[in-house]
Amino acid sequence: MKIVVASDSFKGTLSSIDICHLFKDELDKYPNIEGVYLPIADGGEGSLEAIAYSLKGRYVSIIAKNPYFQDIKTQYYNDENKSAYIETASCAGLTLIKDLNPAKTTTYGLGQQVKDAIKNGCHKIYIFLGGSATNDGGCGLFSALGTKFYNKKNEEFIPVGGTLKNIARIDNSLTDKLLHNVNIIGMCDVDNPLYGSKGAAYVYSSQKGADLQMVIDLDQGLQNLAKVIERDLHINVSSYKGAGAAGGIGAGILAFAKGTLKSGIETILNLIDFDNVVKDADYVVSGEGKLDEQSFQGKVIRGVAEKCQKNNKKLILIVGNTTLSLNEAQDRLPCIKAIFETNE
Where do the structural domains in the chain lie, given as residue ranges? Predict the structure, then answer.
């Protein structure tokens, strides 16, 4: 019997790698069971570990700016095919700072990592867009790559969330040159537009420390950014789903890198060749801390379940707790055969 374990982390309790180790310790007791263990993430926390576990390569350490322009040591991952994998949270993440203020935080360090990856010969760069403390529309990231932003006095500056409203002109020529033959992919599982009631500021910035007035100001800044991008770069980023991901980094990738946005979980499963791994599996086991409606909206469980459905595989879910019955889960994806709660 072959069992594939492909679980998300149980946030605050166990990482996806920890869960794989727990299953291995138990399944190794049964000689008739072949276990295959795949740490999984959806583009947020734990994504770099999941990629590094399954793809041969190496970690690259670098000094980069944190959300407040202070130097920190961080790392990204290079695989053997010269693709780079970078977590936004590694240098622009909420967990890196105590004083949360999305009007002042930057993604500049993320751009430093991208630039280092290009210097190391990478032509495809995946950016995981989860966990950001920023709302700068990716302007910091692309300032580090050469994009120049000017105010009405024709003074160059690096925009943060609170100064997006001051952008009067954008020159992207140096970034265009640097990214020639470089493909940047933003991995996210939200479809929020850049601005508006469902945009980056209104939906997410309060979690990053914004009060109501700051939310309004940040949204107006994102509107101005979109306006100048459309005029100077001839791209209407406001019309793209996912442009509001990670404080608008999604829009920045689309506009300044002419990159793409893809589903985090779908991309990760394809990168680790999940379809091939499960083709002869008898069961697949997956899980996360809480099973609810959101689990079927771009999360690990949905991605794994859709792959199981496609490959006609039986899926067992182990979760901390659930608000859904087995019948309700099966109504969405019939491949789910059992749900076990650890916190019953």
Answer: 2-38+278-341, 47-264
